[in-house]
Specification:
There is one protein chain. This protein has 189 residues and is an alpha/beta fold. It has one domain: Alpha/Beta hydrolase fold, catalytic domain (Rossmann fold), CATH 3.40.50. The protein is built from six helices and six strands. The protein has a six-stranded parallel β-sheet, sandwiched between helices. The two termini are 14 Å apart.
Length: 189
């Protein structure tokens, strides 16, 4: 059975924004889906989140699909860097992902070392899909281009979707994101 793990955003939780609807839709097509609550979501750190994800995953294989949102994306990329030769997941969907320090001191801990894109690419049997918004107030659209260029990710740019979160400030909740489900389906072909 194929499985998917959704890695939530900073201050996120399992029933936040689009996670429940994506979980439900993937379960309809026989995926086992987990949306774990990561520790101290108000202050995510690589040293805590990456091992937590590794523990949730157990043994990775080509039937595993990882879905990240914001800091969940860099957590997935850093996790993939930890995998030994010959170990890989089936595919990866990155929503509002970034690859460099985006100016929040709380997240600089993820960028003490450069991202090893070549190693990351080799740790997925399938493609990478990057979903970005053209008006994200936190993650510049250039990161979609970087993920496309460095990982060969299929880039999907959505119009006026902000950070695919909510509610944050004036941003309304994004409670459905069918592009994620479609991306996972594409990865399983």
């Amino acid at each position: 059975m194929s499985r998917a793990i959704i890695v939530h955003c900073w201050d996120g939780y399992p029933n936040y924004c689009w996670y429940p609807s994506v979980k439900e839709e993937l379960e309809k097509i026989n995926f086992k889906v987990e949306v774990p609550a990561f520790p101290h979501t108000d202050a995510p750190t690589e040293k805590d989140w990456v091992p937590f994800l590794a523990n949730i995953i157990g043994e990775p294989d080509e039937d595993l699909f990882l879905i990240g949102h914001s800091v969940g994306c860099i957590t997935i990329l850093r996790y993939l860097e930890t995998l030994g030769e010959g170990r890989a997941v089936g595919g990866v969907v990155l929503v509002a992902g970034f690859t460099d320090d985006i100016g929040y001191s709380e997240l600089t801990n993820y960028f003490e070392d450069p991202v090893d894109f070549e190693k990351i690419k080799s740790r997925s049997k399938g493609e990478f899909v990057a979903i970005h918004s053209d008006n994200d107030p936190y993650v510049d659209l250039k990161y979609g281009d970087i993920l496309r260029d460095k990982l060969g990710a299929r880039l999907i740019v959505k119009h006026n979707m902000e950070h695919f979160s909510g509610p944050i400030g004036e941003e309304a909740s994004c409670t459905e994101l069918p592009d994620v489900v479609e991306a996972v389906k594409l990865l399983t072909l």
